[in-house]
Amino acid sequence: MQTAVGAKIRGDALYGWLHEQTHFGTHVRYVHDKFMLIDPLSNDPIVITGSANFSAASTKYNDENMLVIRGNTRVADNLPWRVYASIQPPRLP
Q1: Helix, strand, coil abundance in the chain, percent, nearest 5
Q2: pLDDT tens string for the chain (93 positions)?
Q3: Which of 32, 45, 63, 93 maximizes the CB count within 10 A of its CB?
């Protein structure tokens, strides 16, 4: 398993986590996500998802996340449908 670390929590880690929990929405008012599919139709697809951008600010200063899933064809097959369903207008009963 490989991990990538973005912003470093300075000082007390518990304080930093509690601060995020109690001050959510004061700077950023929404949760965002993005995804990238690489070779989605192969037997070894790569799905990259999370809030992180491929920028210096994202990887050095911001509190971001990124998940890389490799070789899971089920995730790669279902991700486009999940995205499509999330952008559809709500249906009335």
Answers
A1: 30, 15, 50
A2: 444 444 555 566 676 666 666 665 555 555 667 889 999 999 999 999 888 888 888 777 777 788 899 999 999 998 888 777 777 776 666
A3: 45
